[in-house]
Amino acid sequence: MAGRGGLLVLQSDWQESLRDNDTSAWVMYKTLGRQAEHGKVGGTNPSSAFTVQGRTERTITITYTPTGRSTLFVAPTQTFSHIHAKSVMSLDVAEGGLAVSVCAENKLLVWETETGLVRRTLEGHLFDAYSCRLFPSGVVVLSGGGDMQLRIWDAVTGQCPVVLKGHTGAVLDTAIVERGRNVISVSKDGSAKLWNCGAAACVATLLTTESVLNCCAITDVTGSIDLPPPAEPPSELEYGTAGKVLLAGADDGQVHLVNVAGRAVLAVLPLGSPVLAGCWATATLAVLGLADGRLEVVDAQTLNSRPLSHDSASSVESIVPHAGGVLAGRRDGTCQFYKLDGSSSAQLTGSDCDPIYRIAINSSHIYAACRDGHVRKYCIRDLGAV
Question: How far is CA 116 from CA 7, 120, 134, 175, in A?
Answer without folding.
Answer: 32, 12, 16, 25
